[in-house]
């Protein structure tokens, strides 16, 4: 058990920041991102014995996080409670404005994307290799490249549109 | 006009702070589960305190009528059985650790929810009837020493108290507990459902 605890702590310390960033990009809300981070690593803890080094551990954790994020907002209760990401972002933007307006705007633009696109672009922004993103999202690399190109364009468009307002 | 590269740079420069550590995270999950366990344990302790208080009353006070002894026996028996049921349910949610055996815990939690439902419905009425019967027997000797007014006040107050516990309080407890367990089950189900497809 001690060895598992130690391994888990190492995995958590080396991956939690990126996973939190992914969850934060997806929800735009610190509390929700913390909830998602917690759920993700709880699953990691429970499945640590089953991990067989077929892929990179970071890829495996990303895949868990992506599934967790996608399931999270689909829960009817949570949708009713949180009124989805848009509103959260709208509320949070006030807190951001003085500190970092541009970052707040970026999160707002990400929140305007489709659920899957949000996760893909977050991984792209974090510079994950395309083959890893393809593996995590279950899309072929060829299709993914096209998709990423489209999402990049859309995000840039949205960003410039909001920045000029 | 910003290009995607600049947006990416902005993203990477934004440093996020993870406020939770690995230890805290596991503790947090355990805390939710422990909250339910603690509540169940407190419930048992409360009932146990009532049992002891009545038993002490029985031992240290000299009651003359057999009806009082029958009344206290019935009351103690009802409370004792209730404690045993509560303890059985408490063991159900205490025996497995969600962080180690999630599916087992989830299945126990579902049984616990069903048991609580039975406890607050059919079993609760047996308990109320037994308690009322015990009090009726107990009051025969006790109320004989009181004036008519005091008798009416004591009987009226006891009746209203039992009525309040069986209706308003019972419904509120059922509603609150149902919501609490359902939320916990919903959360664990959501987590467990994804475990097989990470």
TrEMBL record, chain A:
Signal peptide: none annotated. One of its GO terms (biological process) is DNA-templated transcription initiation. Residues 12-78 form the RNA polymerase sigma-70 region domain. GO terms for cellular component: DNA-directed RNA polymerase complex. Keywords: DNA-directed RNA polymerase, Sigma factor, Transcription, Transcription regulation. The keyword Transcription regulation applies. GO terms for molecular function: DNA binding; sigma factor activity. It comes from the Bacteria. This is DNA-directed RNA polymerase sigma-70 factor.
